Each structure stands twice: as structure tokens, then as C-alpha cells.
Amino acid sequence: MMIRFENFEQLAQIDLGSPEPKPTSVEGNQLEAAKKLWTSPDGKVEVGVWECTPGRFTANRENNSEICHIVSGRVSLHDLDGRTRDFQEGELVVLPIGWRGEWTIHKKTRKLYMLQFK
Questions:
Q1: pLDDT in tens, 10-58
Q2: Which residues, in sequence order, are bridge partners of residue 69?
Q3: Rounded distance, CA 36 to CA 106, Å?
Q4: Is 6 helix (H, G, I), strand (E, B) or coil?
Q5: pLDDT of 47-87, one tens digit each?
Q6: CA 43 → CA 22, 40, 50, 87, 117, distances in Å?
Q7: What phi and psi values does residue 22 have, to the nearest 5 degrees?
């Protein structure tokens, strides 16, 4: 099945509610908001939309993997080995189970995410 690009346009318009302080923020007093769009019956897969303001935060994928499509914005991901990868609107990010590191949000960013839990 092929997804039409126009469908992603709708993701930019979804109301995520009021943003709240990001608990793992280490720089920038970030605010985030998210909306779950779907959860599998067994609770092992979750799909949603997330948005965050500029700054830096830690992330730990110890118990789940994450695939995300950057709908808008620009980010850098820094792993614990010191590698950095930049991503922007239209790109796909895959974080395997066990990934740990930091996200730097350069510009307010919105992503479509899919989490798969162990």
C-alpha cells in the first residue's frame, strides 16, 4: 500500500492540545504536546503525533523501538558513541530497541511516530 503525500499534510493540522514542560529537557525549557492516534489491541504498538519546541533532551529506547517521520522542523540526534545525525522535514528516523542519546530540536518540530514495545 502506498501512502499519498497529501495525507501527511493533515498531520500538521492535528490539534495536540496544550503543550507541557518536557520532563527530560536538559536545555531550552522545552514544551511538548502529543496525541495518540492508534494503539494495537495488545498495547505493544502505538502511533501518534508529537511536537516539541527548540532545545535539547535525553531519550531512552530501552523498552521500545521508534520509527518517526519528521512532518516539520529540524533535529539532530546524538548517540552515546558521539555520532550525530541531522534530520529535517520529510525524513524518516529509526531508533532501535536499546538506543539512548539526546535530541537537539533546532526548530519547532512535529513528527508522526510509531513505538513498538518489547
A1: 888 899 999 999 999 999 999 999 999 999 999 999 999 999 999 999 9
A2: 92, 112
A3: 24
A4: helix
A5: 999 999 999 999 999 999 999 999 999 999 999 999 999 99
A6: 24, 5, 19, 28, 8
A7: -80, 120
**pTM of this prediction exceeds 0.85:** yes
- As a whole number of angstroms, the distance between CA 22 and CA 3 comes to 31
Other C-beta atoms within 10 Å of 51: how many?
A: 21
If you write DSSP's letter for every residue of 15-35 in order, what string do you get?
---S-EE-TTEEES--EEEEE
DSSP E strand boundaries for 1-118: 20-21, 25-27, 31-39, 45-52, 55-60, 64-79, 84-88, 92-95, 100-117
